């Protein structure tokens, strides 16, 4: 990966709270597919660009930092706490991103729920398309737990766009790499819970890959340069002990060790790649 310079850091949030999905029989207007949101985004962008002066700068690199669950009220509380710890009143204290030259807000609601959850909110944030409750990387055509609905509802993400622009890419998360928020960058699933094949209904396992398998086999996952996160159990079969916790086993039912499959696939493509699982291996 090329050296990081001219870096733009964007801090965003996915709001969570008391989950309140709309009634399941609520119908979503047909206009709310991916094309509706793409058109709306372009219209909004053009309105903003009319106020730009001179040449539009182009970032060489972009780092997107997602604080999952970090709502406006959470950041307000953080501001106050930071200030009061310094002996100030708190409300007038700045956090780092308050000093950025540009700050914006993004709506990440679900099309069938006022208070969203991670997968559909991450789809809105990372793919630019509003989605249905507990679906991942799909537009409103995708239905929860409905494999067939995912076939024609898949949307592209920031990772896809970066690869199209010739950029290297990476995902670093403190959660499972197959968790709903980071998975929106590479996976398309009618359920955020399909992290390995044991969670996918047996009747649709041939048609809908689990999230871990998509990361290893599908675009754009198989071409991501750096992947750091937890959730190893979703990549290991049930008969394989965890390398760091021997009393624990993987959860896959297909017998595949996806970590080894990932390494072999990179070797077949003559790519330099290594799978590591400990701090000692990193340093």
UniProtKB/TrEMBL annotation:
Listed EC numbers: 3.1.3.1
Molecular function per GO: alkaline phosphatase activity; metal ion binding
Residues involved in Zn(2+) binding: 68
Catalytic class of the enzyme: hydrolase
Active site: 118
Cofactor(s) essential for the protein: Zn(2+); Mg(2+)
Binding sites annotated in the UniProt record for Mg(2+): 68, 179, 181
Signal peptide: 1-20
InterPro entries xref list: Alkaline_phosphatase, Alkaline_phosphatase_core_sf
Binding note for cofactor: Binds 2 Zn(2+) ions.
Keywords annotated in UniProt: Magnesium, Metal-binding, Signal, Zinc
Family statement: Belongs to the alkaline phosphatase family.
Cited PANTHER family: ALKALINE PHOSPHATASE, ALKALINE PHOSPHATASE-RELATED
Protein name: alkaline phosphatase
Originating organism: Leptidea sinapis
């Amino acid at each position: 990966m090329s050296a990081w310079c001219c870096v733009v850091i964007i801090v965003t949030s996915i709001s969570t709270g008391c989950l309140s999905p709309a009634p399941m029989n609520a119908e979503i207007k047909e206009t709310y597919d991916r094309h509706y949101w793409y058109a709306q985004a372009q219209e909004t962008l053009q309105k903003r660009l009319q106020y730009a002066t001179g040449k539009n700068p182009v970032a060489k690199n972009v780092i997107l930092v997602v604080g999952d669950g970090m709502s406006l009220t959470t950041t307000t509380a953080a501001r106050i706490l930071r200030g009061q710890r310094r002996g100030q009143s708190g409300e007038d204290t700045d956090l780092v991103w308050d000093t950025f030259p540009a700050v914006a807000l993004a709506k990440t609601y679900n099309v069938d729920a006022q208070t969203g959850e991670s997968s559909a909110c991450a789809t809105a944030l990372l793919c630019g398309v509003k989605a249905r409750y507990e679906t991942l990387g799909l537009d409103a055509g995708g239905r929860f737990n409905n494999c067939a609905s995912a076939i024609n509802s898949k949307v592209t993400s920031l990772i896809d766009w970066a690869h199209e622009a010739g950029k290297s890419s990476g995902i670093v998360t403190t959660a499972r790499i197959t968790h709903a928020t980071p998975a929106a960058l590479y996976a398309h699933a009618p359920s955020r819970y399909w992290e390995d094949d044991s969670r996918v209904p047996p009747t649709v396992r041939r048609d809908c890959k689990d999230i871990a398998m998509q990361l290893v086999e599908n675009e754009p996952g198989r071409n991501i340069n750096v992947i750091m996160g937890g959730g190893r159990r979703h990549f290991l079969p049930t008969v394989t002990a965890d390398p760091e916790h021997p009393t624990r086993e993987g959860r896959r039912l297909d017998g595949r060790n996806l970590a080894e499959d990932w390494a072999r696939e990179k070797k077949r493509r003559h790519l330099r790649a290594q799978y590591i699982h400990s701090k000692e291996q990193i340093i």
